[in-house]
Design brief:
This protein has 90 residues and is of the alpha+beta class. The protein is 46% helix and 16% strand. It has 3 helices and 3 strands, in the order βαααββ. Helix 1 (18-30) packs across helix 3 (51-67) and helix 2 (36-46) crosses helix 3. The model is unreliable at 1-14 (pLDDT under 50).
């Protein structure tokens, strides 16, 4: 099942900043499928968050980027991942 987060969410008016902006930039650079594990690997390099928080933060950031229309959620049994939306320009 492939879905795009909707629920009336819109991109933040001021644009992305901080950690979500860094994550989106890296997703645009590397492409492919992104899940929480892949985002955690990135966050270990670019943030000073404690390891106990990394997975939850990564999941939240990926979910938010999908809700704001930057990513598409692919929700399969035991396999949730995100990809860049093809109709969105950088």
């Amino acid at each position: 099942m492939t879905t795009t987060a909707q629920a009336g969410a819109q991109a933040p008016a001021a644009g992305l900043t901080g950690r979500p902006a860094q994550l989106l930039a890296e997703i645009r650079r590397q492409r492919g499928r992104w899940n929480a594990t892949r985002a955690v690997r990135l966050y270990r390099r670019i943030t000073d968050l404690p390891d106990t928080r990394l997975r939850a933060v990564a999941r939240g950031d990926l979910r938010d980027l999908a809700a704001w229309g930057h990513l598409t959620l692919h929700d399969q049994p035991s396999n949730r991942y995100y990809t860049l939306r093809k109709d969105v320009r950088p």
